[in-house]
């Protein structure tokens, strides 16, 4: 299980861990985006929160995570939970279902760095690939021209999200 604030590097670290240990990467962000894209009931409920730069309520995220952990590929290969649990209620949900990690990794990154990562982040709407204007620029001018800033990748929205995140950390 890996945890950290948004933009702390969970996705990057997960790629390395999943590749090395052949685990199933279960990302709450990926699950949420897939549900929204599919237009499911859960996706439609989550969409309003996501577009406002807010965290999706526990019951929605928990339902998606537990459903994913019940699938056969996860049972066979094991899992790496990315960004879950984010609240005491989510942690309690896992505990009640006897779902416990063998290893728990916390990425602790200073807020100033998180804000810089977020504000500099750009999305390629064609490929879905994420870039950063300073740390991971696009390969060419064609890609650079089509990059967009996600609505929640502003300093104001991210600062608010960080305050919310810090208030929900399970300690």
TrEMBL record:
GO terms for molecular function: AMP kinase activity; ATP binding. InterPro entries: Adenyl_kin_sub, Adenylat/UMP-CMP_kin, Adenylat_kinase_CS, P-loop_NTPase. The keyword Acetylation does not apply. Its EC number is 2.7.4.3. Gene3D superfamilies: P-loop containing nucleotide triphosphate hydrolases (3.40.50.300). It catalyses: AMP + ATP = 2 ADP. SUPFAM superfamilies: P-loop containing nucleoside triphosphate hydrolases (SSF52540). It comes from the Eukaryota. Keywords: Kinase, Nucleotide-binding, Transferase. It is an enzyme of class 2 (transferase). Belongs to the adenylate kinase family. HAMAP family: Adenylate_kinase_Adk. PANTHER family: NUCLEOTIDE KINASE (PTHR23359). Monomer. This is adenylate kinase. It comes from Punica granatum (Pomegranate).
